[in-house]
Amino acid sequence: MEYINEKYKYSEETSRIIACALEVHKILGNGFQEVIYQRALS
Questions:
Q1: What is the DSSP string of 21-38?
Q2: 18, 21, 24, 33: which could join 40 in a potential S-S bond, CB 3.0 to 4.6 Å?
Q3: DSSP assigned state of 13
């Protein structure tokens, strides 16, 4: 799913970040502290 909206300056970059975050969440699932998701995204 893409979240690109050309009226926003960093829409493409934001879309990629959201896609990565959703992929991490899909793999790890629910229930972890925020720091676990942060480390998975880094």
A1: HHHHHHHH-S---HHHHH
A2: 24
A3: H
Side chain identity at residue 22, one-letter code: L
- pTM to 2 decimals? 0.75
Q: How far apart are CA 34 and CA 26, in angstroms?
A: 15
Summarised one tens digit per residue, pLDDT across range 9-28 is 888 888 889 999 999 999 99
Q: How far is CA 15 from CA 7, 25, 31, 39, in A?
A: 13, 15, 24, 19
Domain ranges of the chain: 11-41
